Amino acid sequence: ELLDAIAMERHVPPEYLLGIVGVETAYGRLTGRYRVLDALTTLAFDFPARGEYFRQELEQFLLLARSGELDPLTTLGSYAGAMGVAQFMPTSFQRYAVDEAGTGRRDLWNDWADIFASVANYLQQHGWRYEQPVRAEAELGVAPAPPPLANVTLSTTLGGLRSTGMRVASLLDDDTPCVAISAPLETGTSYRVGFQNFYVITRYNRSPLYAMAVHDLAQAIRARVLAADAP
């Protein structure tokens, strides 16, 4: 009931909230064992390639500590400083974490109201489109195989892909922004097309493989729930 209520309030399907926390932390089982203060300080001053980014994250973490929301000496997270079931970095915690339970603090470790609402708020604020698809299956036809992607950008349209000969299983308009994706499988390579909501999931983690994992897990959860509810 809690999950459904938050999903309706935030206009994000519940299966995608479960998909993200499932991929991130196995539903809260693996939230990290590193002290966040140590992780962020090490990366801020001993990792030149991304030192500026982690110094910003360290600053936000210290601000959260100063406000009393987090204890800097006991807060644990990932080796990169991501925190809680949602694995929010401190900047994301500041911007998107929600005190849904009304306790006066945002608890992303133990309070599932705060956890679900914060993940939903993150997706909503990054442009989630309610009742719109995440991705569609595709066949190359005579189209060239899309190159491997490091970052997802909606750089083409459905009509543009179809004009190259790609067949896309979608009823969306040809002017719909999208991206073609190669999906490596055990049995070979399949091809998919991601839409706005696929792009939004990659704002949580930039990897297209991450977004595909979240989507596939979400759909598996939905299928199981529907099967259990069937007469």
Sum this structure up briefly:
The protein has about 230 residues and is α+β, with helices and mostly antiparallel strands.
Mean pLDDT: 96
- Count of alpha/pi helices: 9
Structural class call reads: alpha+beta
Oligomeric state of shown chains: single chain
Major sheet description: 5 strands, antiparallel
Q: Low-confidence runs (pLDDT<50, min 5 residues)?
A: none
Cα shape: globular
Determine the N-to-C terminus distance.
Answer: 21 Å
Helix and strand element order = HHEHHEHHEEHEEEHH
- Care to count the β-strands? 7
Radius of gyration from CA coordinates: 19 Å
Helical proportion, percent range: 40-55%
In which order are the strands of the major sheet placed? 4-6-7-3-5
Taken as a percent bin, the fraction of beta residues is 5-15%
Summarize the topology.
Blueprint: H1 2-10, H2 14-25, E1 34-35, H3 36-46, H4 51-66, E2 76-77, H5 90-96, H6 112-125, E3 135-139, E4 156-157, H7 158-163, E5 167-168, E6 177-185, E7 188-194, H8 196-204, H9 208-229
Antiparallel strand pairs: 1-2, 3-5, 3-7, 4-6, 6-7
Helix pairs in contact: 1-6, 2-9, 3-4, 8-9
